[in-house]
Write a structure and sequence with these properties.
single chain, alpha+beta, 2 domains, four-stranded antiparallel β-sheet, 4 helices, 4 strands, about 35% helix
């Protein structure tokens, strides 16, 4: 899913505080002692609200156009803002039957990479799919494609070429 932007209302609260609320998510509010802190908390709360809906298999609401937002009486309005959020790709539990020795090898490799079994299987499937994608896009170096999928993971960097330099084909 692509990034979505939801409108929010930034308002003044009591005693030099600020608040943000989202018309499309009535229970999603955030507050702070500075505008920056409040906006940061608002982004976190919006992400949490969207993740909760995704876990419940509830479709996300369409963002309300800002011109249709009604400011309630008593609101010390400062500004309309739009906060962007990436809808999550919720994990799904699956049962897979594999030979015991293969699972042991996978667990050993996962531990060596500082990963758990589920993360390693996700990496293995993503890597395999990336290799299949290479057939459609042969100019893409598979090691670089995989490293891009999992930045910062040890052992997932492009292999060293015979010259001792890392391959940087793209």
């Amino acid at each position: 899913m692509t990034r979505r932007f939801y409108p929010a209302v930034l308002e003044r609260g009591p005693k030099r505080t600020f608040g943000v609320w989202f018309p499309d998510f009535p229970d999603c509010v955030a507050g702070g002692t500075s505008q920056e802190e409040t906006l940061e908390r608002a982004q976190t709360e919006l992400a949490r609200a969207i993740y909760t809906l995704a876990e419940q298999d509830t479709p996300l609401p369409d963002p309300t156009p800002m011109e249709k937002i009604e400011i309630p009486k008593g609101c010390d309005f400062i500004a309309f803002i739009a906060i962007g959020v990436e809808p999550p790709d919720v994990s799904e539990r699956v049962n897979v039957y594999l030979p015991r020795q293969l699972i042991e090898r996978a667990d050993k490799r996962a531990a060596g990479l500082g990963m758990n079994r589920s993360s390693f299987f996700g990496l293995a499937v993503s890597s395999t799919l990336a290799r299949f994608d290479l057939k459609a896009n042969p100019g893409l170096d598979s090691a670089i494609a995989i490293a891009r999928l999992f930045p910062g993971k040890k052992g997932l960097r492009p292999a060293k070429a015979a010259t001792g330099k890392r391959s940087t084909k793209s």
